Fold this protein.
Amino acid sequence: WRVADLMDLGRRAQDLIPIDRGGDRRVFAFANPGLKGAPYVSNTLWAAAQFLGPGELAPAHRHSPAALRFVMEGEGVWTLVNGDPIHMGRGDVILTPSWNFHEHHNPGDKSMVWLDVLDLPVVEFLEAIFFEEGPSELVDRKTDPRSVSERQFGQGAGIVPSGSKGVMKGSRHSPLLVFRWADVDSALDALLEIKGGGDAQIRYQDPVSGNDVMPTLRCEMRRVVQGTTTGADRQTGSRVCA
Ligand code: 1HN
């Protein structure tokens, strides 16, 4: 799915389709033509581009499928994940684990676009889809550039509050809800510098348990230096690349 096609469709959708209760979001699902008309990118993953225009609010809800977002364009939307306001910037990865209330606000004067990936087909297959509307917060709520989750669990590599392991026991997802592009960018640079070129890949992880960010969704970023050909790899899970 080409970005140029998407941006054009997104602009038109913004003029035609308001964000109201019922729909709640303005997203273009990437439908794999091999999946008999289902709006899924693979048998296990939903992927979509979401457009949020200036001043718009995507109202609060929660659902059993888990989601993650990767910001493709724009700056300044903040998303409230279980009451924690998270600023969204280009290249950031933001988590919305299962059953966490979430809503998106765009207080700026430009549109924003991000990729949404959900484990929705898996949860649907298990007949375990649940959905609930939530009360939206006031639009003019002040946001800190650093969310509560970052101030607690994103202070630096290998640093977590004492006792975290006990407190987070039983939680199936990362308590750090956002991973900043600048950190990923410099980690990839460092790995490439050590290797002297080629390609490098990092995995986003739960800073307390070391597990993947959510039980059903792994998240990684790869940088391939111009002129490099990577080796082939094989896996059973399906993958969405942006
Ligand atoms: C959803 O809640 C969002 O909250 C985006 O931004 C895409 C696709 C299917 C079901 C729920 C969002 C979604 C979604």
